[in-house]
Design a protein that fits this description.
Order of helices and strands: HHHHEEEHHHEHEEEEHH
Oligomer: single chain
Strand order of the largest sheet: 1-2-3-4
Helix content: 25-40%
CATH superfamily of the largest domain: Phosphorylase Kinase, domain 1
Shape: globular
Number of domains: 2
CATH architecture of the largest domain: 2-Layer Sandwich
């Protein structure tokens, strides 16, 4: 589940102005002042090791555990106790194994927007309601405030989508904090969710496993069913392939939602949906599933009532 900095009613598909104003440059600097005893955080941060994230010998008290203020807040709230190791690193974020009162969790920590390899998310953001012209202008002009807001909205959107999908019964990692605004904390770039796996290993991506013919067919059908359910909900994943599908105990779980779009609102939605189908079909060839992407796409549109 995700911990996130915006206060919001999650039943709404819109982002309140008050939530976005919380991610202003002034708030960013107030956080830095609060944690001024730690290293300068104005410098953009990319992938960081466990050692970088912990304070270690520089801690001024036993209550100070993490150099990252978001992790420190989670620690102070008793949600996480420690980071145990790195699970997966990618272009946008690094996922760490965390331990807490509820057991093992996955902590997804985004890199600063300034150092991320993928920065232009306009294709995915198209049609999203922001509700504040100043924020929109700052994002479009890529000012410091705009970059900070874009970072926050990107992470917030993933949190919002995860809760909606989880409550709808889809196979996604369970959010670890309640969906009410009062349950959210200012956790910056940290997204906290259920860890799929055990103490020996994390659930692998479908792109990384070898499946029997029977398992491959089951995984394919489950993946199609998830894609169909998303389409019927009016959503397009935007990056759907075996690289964002986990295989755990015979079940497929979908992950990675910050780019997810609304089919009715995003003018690029059908192009993204078609790309998702092509990517899924292409990456399943490793498992000897040879589906025709055009046929799958048209069948998906028909069954999800997206034709016309």
């Amino acid at each position: 589940m995700f911990i996130f900095l915006f206060a919001v009613v999650l039943n709404s598909c819109y982002l309140p102005v008050e939530a976005m104003l919380k991610y202003s440059q002034e708030d960013h600097y107030e956080q830095e002042e609060r944690f001024s005893k730690r290293q300068d955080r104005k410098k953009p941060k990319g992938r960081r090791s466990i050692t970088d994230l912990h304070i270690g010998e520089d801690a001024q008290s036993s209550a100070d555990q993490f150099a990252d203020p978001a992790l420190q807040l989670l620690f102070e709230r008793g949600i996480i106790r420690e980071l145990l190791g790195e699970l997966k690193s990618g272009k946008e974020a690094t996922v760490y194994l965390a331990d807490g009162p509820e057991g093992l969790m996955a902590a997804k920590i985004y890199s600063d927007m300034l150092v991320r390899s993928f920065r232009n998310d306009s294709m995915y953001r198209a049609g999203r309601f922001i509700g504040d012209d100043r924020i929109q202008k700052a994002i479009d002009q890529r000012t410091l405030n705009g970059i900070n807001a874009q970072q926050g909205l990107w992470v917030f959107h993933e949190y919002l989508q995860l809760w909606e999908l989880y409550r709808a019964g889809l196979a996604v990692p369970k959010p670890m904090v309640g969906p009410d605004a009062s349950d959210m904390v200012d956790a910056g770039r940290v997204v906290l969710m259920e860890f799929l796996g055990d103490r020996d290993a994390a659930a692998p991506r479908l792109s990384d496993v070898r499946l029997s013919a029977e398992e491959a067919e089951s995984a394919w059908q489950q993946s199609l069913d998830i894609l169909m359910t998303l389409a019927k909900m009016g959503k397009v994943h935007g990056d759907y392939s075996t690289y964002n599908l986990l295989w755990w105990q015979g079940k497929v779980y979908v992950i990675d939602f910050p780019q997810m779009g609304d089919i009715k609102e995003n003018p690029n939605a059908m192009m993204l949906l078609e790309r998702d189908v092509v990517s899924l079909c292409k990456t399943f060839r490793k498992h000897s599933i040879w589906a025709n992407a055009d046929e799958v796409f048209w069948d998906l549109k028909a069954r999800a009532s997206l034709v016309g």
